[in-house]
Amino acid sequence: MEKTYAGIIQRWLVVESQKRRELRFKTSGKKMKKEEVEAQKNSGN
């Protein structure tokens, strides 16, 4: 990713550890499941 600040190109590198990545996938899975349950409740099923 590149951004410009005061006419100077700045490059950014995002680094994520393996453990952090696994946690992100785990929590996003829980969030999706929760949203699915809420959608079912709201649809009357």
Overview of this protein structure:
- With 45 residues, the protein is α+β, with helices and mostly antiparallel strands.
- It has a domain at 15-45.
- 58% of the residues lie in helices and 18% in strands.
- The protein is built from one helix and two strands; from the N terminus they run ββα.
- It has one helix at residues 18-43; strands spanning 2-5, 8-11.
- A two-stranded antiparallel sheet has the order 1-2.
- A hairpin with a 2-residue loop joins β1 (2-5) and β2 (8-11).
- The longest helix is centred in the last third of the chain and has 26 residues, at 18-43.
- It is elongated, with a radius of gyration of 19 Å.
- The model has no long low-confidence stretch (mean pLDDT 87).
